[in-house]
Design a protein that fits this description.
The chain is mostly helical and 100 residues long. Helix content is 65%, strand content 0%. It has 5 helices and no strands. α3 packs across α4. The longest helix is centred in the N-terminal third of the chain and has 18 residues. It is globular, with a radius of gyration of 17 Å.
Length: 100
């Protein structure tokens, strides 16, 4: 099976959601002219930041506009800081010694 065909199978269940997200992003970016959904950073961009990380992590094929938007989010200073801070967290946390 070709790699592209395998990707199509992997995302088949999620594809309608991926398509809808890209449509929302495309509409906002076209109307407000980017680079963020409403031209400048807003809570909407913060809300979609984890979606961008998923798209990157799973190498989801995106439209050119959606790819540029994801790249913008991944370079956004608060996002860069969030990722850096997350990398510093321990892999395991000690359980709290608290009775409930």
């Amino acid at each position: 099976m070709r790699h592209g065909a395998q990707r199509a199978i992997e995302f088949a269940g999620a594809q309608p959601d991926i398509d809808r997200i890209q449509a929302i992003w495309g509409e906002c970016l076209e109307r407000w002219k980017g680079p963020f959904l409403y031209r400048k950073p807003t809570i909407a961009d913060a809300m979609y930041a984890p979606v961008c990380t998923r798209f990157v992590s799973y190498s989801v094929p995106l439209t050119p506009a959606a790819q540029v938007y994801c790249d913008t989010i991944m370079r956004w200073p608060p996002m860069v800081k969030w990722i850096e801070d997350a990398m510093q967290e321990p892999d395991e946390l000690e359980e709290l010694d608290v009775e409930f």
